């Protein structure tokens, strides 16, 4: 079970809901992924305008926990305002804190992310901050009391996969809360690797919505996350420099 705050989930794949070719493809992909947590940008939704198109109307919300995010925020204060808006709409008390500090790389601002996380925790939110793969920053966020940390594997939407597995493994080793790898995942192999490193979950969007067949890719990501987790729990064999016979040599007859 993946535990985030008071909530428990069977699936360890979290899915974004943006940039799908159509609402119908989005719905099929969500169902194929097996995801129980769906994230979306509050600023890109008309949550207070019932006459406007809304992807939420296309889904059975009883099956999912919504994770609004503060995408578009550039300061802690702006992120907090967006989070309050999401909470006021009655969507969920969980929030993904996203405060971008660089427009070119879309990397998060560490100072503003820490500040926003602290402010939202004080207001009683269940806070999941999106961070870079900075080991110390992840530690500081946990010390504040966040409910999960979400280090990026690579820049948002880049599809580069895990560019710094060493730092990611350091974050996982010292984690006191779930570590959910977020951003930059491009293929099922990337998702499986994140889980094999010991991550508690993977959040992705573009890798599915931008695929030639989003529905098939959603299913592939589901299986990859499950396989990676099973591999991590099973414990892989150590890497060796030289070959080792796979069959025992003791008791072999002389020919």
Tell me what the structure shows.
By secondary structure, the chain is an alpha/beta fold. The protein has a single domain, classed as Aldolase class I (TIM Barrel, Alpha-Beta Barrel). The chain is 35% helix and 15% strand. It is built from 8 helices and 10 strands. It has helices spanning 23-33, 76-88, 110-122, 135-144, 165-173, 188-196, 206-209, 214-234, and strands at residues 2-4, 7-9, 13-16, 37-41, 65-69, 94-97, 126-131, 150-151, 180-182, 201-204. Strand 6 (94-97), helix 3 and strand 7 form a beta-alpha-beta unit. Helix 1 (23-33) runs parallel beside helix 8 (214-234). The longest helix has 21 residues, at 214-234. The N and C termini lie far apart (53 Å). The mean pLDDT is 90. Homotetramer. Forms heterodimers with either ThiH or ThiS. This is Thiazole synthase. It is an enzyme of class 2 (transferase). Its EC number is 2.8.1.10.
């Amino acid at each position: 079970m993946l535990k985030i705050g008071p909530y428990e989930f069977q699936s360890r794949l979290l899915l974004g809901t943006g940039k799908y070719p159509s609402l119908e493809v989005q719905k099929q992909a969500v169902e194929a992924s097996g995801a129980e947590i769906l994230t979306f940008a509050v600023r890109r939704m008309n949550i207070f305008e019932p006459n406007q198109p809304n992807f939420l109307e296309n889904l059975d919300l009883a099956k999912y926990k919504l994770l609004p995010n503060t995408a578009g925020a550039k300061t802690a204060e702006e992120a907090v305002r967006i989070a309050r808006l999401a909470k006021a709409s009655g969507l969920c008390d969980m929030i993904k804190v996203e405060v971008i500090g660089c427009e070119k790389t879309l990397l998060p601002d560490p100072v503003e992310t820490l500040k926003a996380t602290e402010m939202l925790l004080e207001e009683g939110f269940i806070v999941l901050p999106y961070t870079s793969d900075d080991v110390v920053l992840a530690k500081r966020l946990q010390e504040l009391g966040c409910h999960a940390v979400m280090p990026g594997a690579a820049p948002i939407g880049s599809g580069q996969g895990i560019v710094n597995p060493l730092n990611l493994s350091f974050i996982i080793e010292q984690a006191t809360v779930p570590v959910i790898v977020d951003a930059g995942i491009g293929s099922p192999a990337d998702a499986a690797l994140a889980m094999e490193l010991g991550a508690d979950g993977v959040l992705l969007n573009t890798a599915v919505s931008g695929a030639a067949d989003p529905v098939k890719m959603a299913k592939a990501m589901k299986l990859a996350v499950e396989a990676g987790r099973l591999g991590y729990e099973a414990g892989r064999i150590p890497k060796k420099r030289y070959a080792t016979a796979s069959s025992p040599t003791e008791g072999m007859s002389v020919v």
